[in-house]
Amino acid sequence: MTQESRMARDPRTTPEPRDDRTAEAPLREKVALVAGATRGAGRGIAVELGAAGATVYVTGRTTRSRRSEYDRAETIEDTADLVTAAGGRGIAVPTDHLEQDQVKALVDRIAAEQDGLDVLVNDIWGGEHLFGWDQPVWEHDLDKGLRLHRLAVETHAITSHFALPLLLRGPGGLHVEVTDGTADYNGVNYRNSFFYDLAKNSVLRMAFSLGHELGPRGATAVALTPGWMRSEIMLDAFGVTEENWRDALTDQPHFAISETPHYVGRAVAALAADPDVARFNGTSQSSGGLAQVYGFTDLDGSRPDAWRYLVEVQDTGKPADVTGYR
């Protein structure tokens, strides 16, 4: 807008002109770091932040030239390309978040290339093959259990330590701790094994603690869980793809409440675009719960509310029926 047009417009009677680019891409001027974005929730979050226009740094250990211990095909370069294709700018930075020097170098690079950091997402996990279901701690492989905790908890602490000062350089920063389960659900339910339960509840507590540390400094910390997510690994476990995922319902009918990784991604994008996001500081949220607040949907147009479904249907032994839950 020119100086002349500013002077000619009467602010009492003339509305501000609408910036369509901003309306369509509310995070166009924002910079995000999604730590642990190779696949699953991290990839879905990175892509949806890109769809909202953000510049997104994506990290992980699997690249096109090197695989992590997961030994899977998904790479951070693929995630970065998906971010860019969605409308943002994806930047892949290979990072092992257990290595402090690598995390510091990552944050230093972002600081050098950008004005700051607006969104930090801690989605580092890497523990799918490290825990035994319903296996008591005295029977569980100790080395695997401790490795799980290093990957799922220590990495989050290291990343927060180095990245949060950059987030706090500007007002209104958002920090998201991705976990499995809400505080309410995990508070009364045993989650799979001693090590898994402790890891996921530790991440919930991180968001609570960081809410106390970030809130007075003008930033917001939130714990966020997807529902039953159709990640690449989950689809493989059921022997299905995203195109035919309903074939898994024969063996696991409650899988009908499942959601794509884009759903939790849209939850993060909605939080990042909300000028009143501080109302959620220090709280535990779910993709399904935030969909009711912000009105976004999953890719199929539905709004699955997995955690309410688990409490009211699955955990009570009722037959699978998602009516009213998606």
Polypeptide structure, described:
The protein is about 40% helix and about 10% strand. The protein has helices at about 5-10, 20-25, 40-50, 75-85, 100-115, 140-165, 185-190, 195-215, 230-240, 260-275, 285-295, 305-310, and strands spanning about 30-35, 55-60, 90-95, 120, 175-180, 220-225, 285. It has a seven-stranded parallel beta sheet, sandwiched between helices. The chain has a single domain (about 25-230, about 260-310), classed as Rossmann fold (3-Layer(aba) Sandwich). The longest helix is centred in the middle third of the chain and has 26 residues, at about 140-165. With about 325 residues, it is an alpha/beta fold. The chain has twelve helices and seven strands. Residues about 1-20 have low confidence and may be disordered. It is globular.
What is the terminal separation in angstroms?
Answer: 44 Å
Query: Can you identify the CATH superfamily?
Result: NAD(P)-binding Rossmann-like Domain
Number of strands: 7
Number of domains: 1
Spatial sequence of strands, sheet with the most strands: 3-2-1-4-5-6-7
* Shape assignment: globular
CATH top level assignment: Alpha Beta
Low-confidence region ranges:
1-21
